[in-house]
Amino acid sequence: MAKYRMHLLICGGTTCRSSESESIRNALEESLERNGLENEVKVVSTGCFGFCDKGPIVKVIPGNTFYIHVKPEDAEEIVKEHVLNGRRVERLLYLEPEKELLATGSKEIGFQKKQIRIALRNCGFIDPENIDEYIARDGYVALCRCLTEYTPQQVIEMIKKSGLRGRGGGGFPTGLKWEITAKVKSDQKYVICNADEGDPGAFMDRSILEGDPHSVIEAMAINGYCTGASKGLVYIRAEYPMAIKRLRIAINQAKEYGLLGKNIFNSGFDFDIELRYGAGAFVCGEETALIHSMEGKRGEPTFKPPFPSEHGFLGKPSNVNNVETYANIPVIINKGPEWFASIGTEKSKGTKVFALAGKINNVGLIEVPMGTTLRDVIFKIGGGIRGGKGFKAVQTGGPSGGCLTTRHLDTPIDYDNLLAAGSMMGSGGMIVMDEDDCMVSIAKFYLGFTVDESCGKCSPCRIGNKRLYEILDKITKGEGTTEDLAKLKNLSEVIKDTSLCGLGQTSPNPVLSTLDNFWDEYVEHVIDKKCRASSCKGLMKYVIDPEACTGCTACARACPVNAISGERKGPHTINQEICIKCGTCMEKCKFNAVLLQ
Amino acid sequence: MSQIKSFEDLRKIKEDFGKRIQFREKSFDPSKVVQIKVGFGTSGIASGAKEVMTFLRDELEKRNIEAVVTQTGDMGYSYAEPTIEVKLPGQEPIVFGKVNVRKADEIIERYIKNGELIDGIIPVNYHTI
Lengths: 597, 129
Known about the structure:
heterodimer; A: 597 residues; alpha/beta; Glutaredoxin; Rossmann fold; Ubiquitin-like (UB roll); 5 domains; 5-stranded mixed β-sheet; 23 helices; 38% helix; B: 129 residues; alpha+beta; 4 helices
């Protein structure tokens, strides 16, 4: 019943489009018509394949043939040879590089895909509100095996062997954390899931909870078994109503099947999970503040040691892990720690989920093996910079991270490399910036956020960050001095060294990182009073172009501070000392004579 | 719902679920049973996925096409939401992006009825374990 026997798919991603995929489409359609095939073969545009350096790309189905670096002139050959005669055009064919074997152990035919979905394995595949679909994809098998075949210590050894590190950003070895809690003697222990996800622009955890909540439930139960905890708590921000709903449904379904509750899998192990809601405080993503918030107190961090592993929720040993860390656990048990450790780099195993946002074409969620370069993430999977503009920087780690620039593009992403480059992995938010972004304003934006979110308990963070913000504000308004630049650096370092918790210890990172990588921009703002990205209004001037001005006096009459002078029918000028930069003159001018410089 | 107390119980549910899918696919006319998954994470819903899902369910029934339309989590293509995955029996699943009601209509008339691909397919760019 199919109307067309063959389809030619052309990548319509921005990079391919700008290198002629439109012309190729036209050429193919014309060629098909010339050869009388327009009713049998159809040409279709697709979204980005994520292989922008091989474009323009044409895929032929059936058969899954990939042609790369295609030009409009190749259209006739493709139609005559492949479509009519069934012979693939060898010179355009994508050939899998021999040495690139996938971590899954099998060599795939076709494009080698840069992403491997482990934590996101079920997202987009199953109905998250149906536990049977989770079970159909081997759900709860890991829990069953742990309870019936392994001792808690054996499971902990597996997690240690896998090399899994905390995905919330700290990167602490997960197996070690579980072992520490397991060793503490107590009548009651707790297993906690940190689903606060406070970083602006991050939605990895939300997607896992909305798309595959059972993976977290199963992992928490396994954690409980290992550490000796019978109660699990999920601390989730109230701003995630869909995730909360799906988690509640999932918990109830698991309870109905006896996968939560008493005597799970007849092993004698009891485990139950409750939800606790956050109210949008970034600091409550810090584990001690999170615990205090759950206890009904104000979300303020406390000094570590003692660590929550020894003295946590209600004073009992508590094991806090991030959502994405949990999502990896069942896979490590089912596929084995060696399999997991075969992916990634030497010290950072497995994959990481990133939320790509900002000035990038393919905004969304990706999951790549550790060790993938930033270049691949931004220019291949991400499809490059929107509007074809120039890449400037990418912020990783949110307000606690730093920006990475063109010189870091070939850095393999892992915990240690990012730290060495002046940033950090963070929870996985990646904000891409282009030539129109002012780095001083970016630093100011992040400081504004952390000032708002500071709990106020310790002076370095409470007072120090506020001062940092004020200095940055001064600079963006054109009132900065060279002394201010020195102050920014000193103050940042003091705040980092002396703050009580991770919020203050990392909040100056955007400042230090931008000072390091974009020193010239700071100097321009302070000495030249110029903003090269044309973003800081305080440094911009409204100027009338004498060639374009007709002397109609519309701007002068509209100016609220009488800053514009000039004879009727003669060119007008704006007195910069009086001008308040409201922009009314530009709105009123019908001759485009008012310019913003 | 009976309790799951052993590995055997898990395996049985997995098998039963698999049988239900197979039964759905084989017992009916293969040219009629379609499986559609609508990306129903917050990104999808904010872009209008609910409208698309309702439209698909209603229209497929009206046009007498045997189909199962379910919700699923975020597929990850936030730049192209709403996204849906359409699997015709015996075919590889295809993901369509920026699906509004008009596009959904086109998908039903052209792809589901005639196997004709239309613009706006999102190539799946990841492996899943």
